[in-house]
Give the backbone structure.
Amino acid sequence: MKWIKNATLFVIFILTVTTIFCYLFQDKLVFQADSLSRDYHFELNQPYEEFFINTPDNTTLNALWFKPTEPAKGLVLYFHGNADNLQRWGQYAIDITQLGYELLMIEYRGYGKSSGTPDEAALYSDASFIYQWAKENSSHDKIILYGRSLGSAVATHLAAEVQPDLLILETPFAELIEASFLRFLFAVAPLHSKFATKEFVDKVKCKIIIFHGTNDWVVSLKSAERLKPLLKKDDEFIIVPDGGHYNLTDYELYHRKLAEVLQ
């Protein structure tokens, strides 16, 4: 039957084209960077100090340092999700500073005002470098790592290396391939980046707090729950009913629990 043969060839053609496309352009799908000019002025909901930090490989990373109005209890180092830039992510700093902590928010290489090109190994290396820079430029002994979505893998990898005072993960995945926008596309093509949070969690000695919503269509609760067996007895996995990937800050439970762990 000729039509079956033609349909089969068409499906094979589509799968081949999709595989090639995904392989060649996967970094654009994973790292959805939104660049900014060097002189761009951030319009945020609280004061900040801006830094440009040079890495050992001559990449320049942009960073924003937020401070509370009262003497700070410590420093939170924040690693954001895979899209946009600090103009978006800086709006969330107030959730931390209003609880009495300073917050240092790093822009990944290739994002916002940062130079360079992002990749998994570079993000891990940059995180380690920034952690040491933060220790040298802060008077605080207490340092907390906060990772959101893609940043959860970066923060967990760093936590396994430096052992901070606390690790907070918001909407984490067990591994990157389980994110909905990649899961189906890369069923037919290899994914360069693993960002396998599950490989680092059991190496973290400090307390771990995980926030995840039941209606997260980007990173399913099921993916995050794969981290549960790796958690220690005193770690917490906080489920926000009806919470999605982008709106956990809309829920009182998130703020109440965050205040408890940052007491």
Residues 96 and 103 are 7 Å apart (CA to CA). The radius of gyration is 20 Å. The chain has eight helices and ten strands.
